[in-house]
From TrEMBL:
Keywords from the UniProt entry: ATP-binding, Hydrolase, Membrane, Nucleotide-binding, Transmembrane, Transmembrane helix
Active site: E198
Protein name per Swiss-Prot or TrEMBL: apyrase
Family matches, as CDD domains: ASKHA_NBD_AtAPY3-like
Length: 487
């Protein structure tokens, strides 16, 4: 290392010759050079000090931060209804416990459309997207670490809608790709998880992000998620909960008794399809030329014409009904229609209380985060975090009554299939959260969110699956837990 001291310079004096009136008898002696040993010792001492400091710093950093060989890797593929997303996690072990960090250096994800369920008629088509997701994951993991990294595929509501035979055909194609990925993989690690598993995983993600996982159960935060094919409600309840809705998990030294339920077919896209089917049945029984108004679609949108070129599948499979529907764009009527759909079967509720259909729901307790399509709709309308439910009504009313042509001009960057859904989703959100579940419009206990905590951790249930599985593995758990088989 270069010393910060000035370099040692030696000055050589020139020879001096006597001038002529002086006698050559005079002699001149060269001055003795100054001693340099002390300077050299100072340099050596400085270099040694710097070396010792750097050594100590290296040791300190080695203890504080893991080296590249100390990292572990795990991949979870979330096979959702609208697409599949690969989540790649990097973590390390301290004091025999896993340490998680979901910053950019230790976490990455990639989503590809469409979802696996769209390959029901062509299971082999699944291999293309799964292969792409695997290649993305491999790009985030050092080659020498692949064989120690685990990869899992967990399919949700879109796949749950298919019959078991088709599910297994699709999963087998995915397994074939995962077996040859280079990662650790077992066939049982590719599966269709239950809706309650999905709800629990989302709850774990939120409470880990907020720092409440491992603390007082009554201080935890509940989750209300609106996906494409299903909706989940999950929170700690002090009520007596029927066993079919109760899940008990442990984290650290704390046990949590959690109410969770997944409302299949009541995700945003599936509910919209269900409404169109209901309108079609009404039109089929109508005596007025079979024309029925659709209050959840902005005026001017040609349902029949657009069903012929729809690529999302939202309208295509209902092309027979769209010929008899006329877009009306009325938020209030859309709210009534969606509420009626959510309350179907409520009169047969076998429990003390049912908020949606005939499904038991305890009284709401604590703070809640509304995620997925709740968040996307609130963001689209630019609602405030504090009064977003109250603001959703006037925002939905303005949007629903607007002409379709004007909406396209106002939002030129937005995909048409999304623009089509915002009238429905604004009314559906109010019907579900306020009219059915009972959140007050000014209820400060519920906020929409896509990330949580000081580190803005994504509120994706796959993170919760990774956290719970990894923590259980390093705590010696040997049992099936929420879709994972731990050996």
């Amino acid at each position: 290392m270069k010393s910060e001291m000035d370099p040692l310079t030696v000055q050589i004096l020139p020879e001096i010759h006597p001038s002529p009136p002086f006698s050559p008898m005079y002699t001149f002696t060269k001055p003795k050079p100054k001693p340099t040993i002390s300077i050299i010792m100072l340099i050596v001492t400085s270099l040694v000090s710097v070396a010792i400091t750097l050594g100590l710093l290296y040791v300190f950093c080695s203890l504080l931060l893991p080296g590249s060989s100390d990292f572990r890797y795990s991949v979870v593929i979330d096979a959702g209804s609208s697409g599949s997303r690969a989540h790649v996690f990097r973590y390390w072990i301290e004091s025999k416990k896993p340490v998680f960090d979901f910053g950019e250096e230790n976490y990455a994800s990639l989503k590809l459309n469409p979802g696996l369920s769209s390959f029901a008629d062509n299971p082999e088509g699944v291999s293309v997207s799964i292969t792409q997701l695997v290649e993305f994951a491999k790009g985030r993991v050092p080659e020498g670490m692949l064989k120690n990294g685990e990869i899992r595929l967990m399919a949700t509501a879109g796949m749950r809608l298919l019959n078991v035979t088709v599910q297994e055909q699709i999963l087998e194609v995915a397994r074939r790709v995962l077996r040859s990925s280079g990662f650790q993989f077992r066939d049982e690690w590719a599966s269709v998880i239950s809706g309650s598993d999905e709800g629990i995983y989302g709850w774990i993600t939120a409470n880990y992000a907020l720092g409440s996982l491992g603390s007082d159960p009554l201080e935890t935060t509940g989750i209300v998620e609106l996906g494409g094919a299903s909706a989940q409600v999950t929170f700690v309840s002090s009520e007596v909960v029927p066993p079919e809705f109760l899940r008990t998990i442990s984290y650290g030294n704390v046990s949590y008794k959690i109410y969770t339920h997944s409302f299949l077919h009541l995700g945003q896209n599936e509910a919209h399809k269900r409404l169109w089917k209901s309108l079609r049945n009404t039109a089929a029984n109508s005596t007025k030329d079979g024309i029925v108004t659709d209050p959840c679609t902005p005026k001017g949108y040609n349902l029949y014409e657009n069903s012929q070129k729809d690529s999302s599948g939202l309208l295509a499979e209902e092309s027979t009904l769209t010929a008899s529907l006329q877009a009306a764009g009325n938020f209030t009527e859309c709210r009534s229609a969606t509420y009626a759909m959510l309350q179907k079967g409520n009169e047969k509720c076998p429990y003390k209380h049912c908020s949606i259909g005939s499904t038991f729901t305890p009284d709401l307790q604590g703070h809640f985060l509304a995620t997925s399509n709740f968040y996307y709709t609130a963001e689209f309308f630019e609602l405030s975090e504090r009064d977003w439910l109250a603001e959703m009504i006037p925002a939905g009313k303005r949007y629903c009554k607007e002409e379709w042509s004007k909406l396209k001009m106002k939002y030129p960057e937005e995909k048409e299939e999304y623009l089509l859904g915002f009238c429905f989703s604004s009314a559906y959100i109010i019907s579900m959260l306020h009219d059915s579940l009972g959140f007050a419009l000014n209820d400060g206990r519920i906020e929409f969110a896509n990330t949580a905590g000081e580190k803005d951790i994504p509120l994706d249930w796959a993170l919760g699956a990774f956290i719970l599985n990894t923590d259980a593995a390093y705590n010696g758990v040997s049992r099936k837990m929420f879709g994972f088989s731990l050996q």
